[in-house]
Amino acid sequence: MSMNKTERLDKLLSNLAYGSRKDVKSWVKQGLITCDGKVVKSPSEKVDPVFVLFDGEPLDHPEGLTLIYHKPLDAVCSHKEKGVLIYDDLPEQWQYRKPPLSSVGRLDKETSGLLILTDDGQLNHHLTSPKHHISKTYAVTLDQPLSGNEMELFASGKLMLEDDYRACLPAEMTAVGEKQAVLILHEGRYHQVRRMFAAIGNHVTALTRTHIGTLSLEQTGLKAGTYTVVEPKALIQSVSPE
Ligand code: URA
Question: Closest Cα partner for 207 from 128, 135, 107?
Fold first, then answer.
């Protein structure tokens, strides 16, 4: 017996970007679709997505899609801009799913590292809401040597960025080389890391997000441009264990 919510077959398959309702009609006619072992007779039949087989194969993540992705340099976090997009690294069918798959926040074109993509609005909200205190960690390479004052200034809660009205929340910086630092942020403003260093007269030459909460890019073992599908619950656990 099925336990999930049922949906009309034609709506389900068009939302999962298999094809149009017209296509579904023809697949049903050909007897290509079964649910719970029985051939589905009409496109309007209500089915449990988990028990549907299309030509003998389970459906493509019918309960939603969440990914951990290693964003490469030069890919843009957008559905429509010109150039190389992060979505080009994913199966094409996923670009047409409803609800759409989107990134949780964004990384700049010139920033690489850990990025989560999901079609789960609640998960997206959980990961971005300040209430859940999920920090982001960045490995930063600079044009000029660190002066030694950055750590205190970034931790002060007084750093103002150009065009912003509120000071940045305290952030933790550790120097790891003459021109290298690790910076942990507790908020996500536009180009924040680059703007923080620009505010003190330095310039970021390379930027990678290494952690989201406790989830580390290194642990994932993902090479740039690759991803892994995860369960939202397991993801929340690895980002912020209770
Ligand atoms: N800060 C930046 O400046 N860029 C990013 O992509 C993320 C944080």
Answer: 107
